[in-house]
Amino acid sequence: MSLWGRKPFLAVRILGTDGYYPAFSVRSATHRYHATERLVWTAVVQQPLPEDWETSETPTLIPEEIRLLAALALSEGDPWHGGVPTVTLGSRRWEEDIDAIDLDSNAGEARIQAALIKLQQDFQANPRFEVNDFGSEGDALDVLESFDANDELLLAGVANLHAGTRLMGPRIHELEAASLCLFVSIGAALELIRLHLNESRGSMSVTFILKETFCLTTSRRCMNTEPSRHTLQVVLASIGQLR
After folding, report:
1. N or C: which end of the chain has fewer CB within 10 A?
2. Alpha helices (H) along the chain
3. Angle made by CA atoms 46, 142, 111, in degrees to the nearest 5
């Protein structure tokens, strides 16, 4: 399905059995997440992208998937003690053109379940998923609502953070590829910090030391408070998990 098509489309995916998932559910008109020990899946509605976006025609994750997976991964307010959700990929992504649909309606549920039946035909038999009671639906929704899905820099940083985590997992364990993804993610975060400091200081030149100090203090603050509602702090919370 082209991301530059004229219609929005439904995208459904079964997540990987090597992940570590929150037990709560996310339900909205455009995003769904549901987790049990037998099946963990996501569903999103992806709108067509502007023509000037530079991304692959068939990327591993589409923008709305990145947005939802970021909300799940950052849903635990105290990861040092509560643990960090780990989201991995299982099935291919099922895509279907739609005119207008509410994923939280009976019609939306029926479309999702029909897609899951088809995806399960290619998935391993009797899968087992690790689901635990950590994170919260409220925190996940806060991150989901604050995430600007039109911010290409933010999308690149968070997508590479997710890819790095997935590549370090026991099923793939490609540490060299994971380190490159994390390097790109940190670079995107530092660029967002630079843009933020330029704006707040009214200067076009910010030293590395100032950026590093800001990164350390803000990421630690994010790790010890409720999840932020601002795009910059979402990325800084990601850095806090890496440090």
Report:
1. C
2. 63-73, 79-82, 106-120, 137-146, 152-167, 175-201, 208-223, 231-242
3. 35
Q: Is 83 left (phi over 0), alpha (psi -120 to 50) or beta?
A: left
**Do both 126 and 205 map to the same domain?**
no
Phi, psi of 104 (to 5 degrees): -95, 10
Last residue of a domain, one of 135, 160, 177: 135
Total residues belonging to the chain: 243
Q: How far is residue 44's CA from residue 32's CA, in Å, rounded to a whole number?
A: 6
Look up the pTM and report it. 0.76
Query: Are 85 and 5 in a shared domain?
Result: yes
Number of domains comprising the chain: 2
- Tokens for 65? 């998937």
Kind and range of the H or E run holding 31: strand 31-35
Q: Are 140 and 24 in contact (CB under 8 A)?
A: yes
Query: Is the domain of 15 the same as that of 62?
Result: yes
Domain of residue 202: give its range. 151-243
- Give a yes or no: residue 145 inside a domain: no
184 and 223 co-located in one domain = yes
* Residues 89 and 168 placed together within one structural domain of the fold: no
Residues 97 and 162 in one domain: no
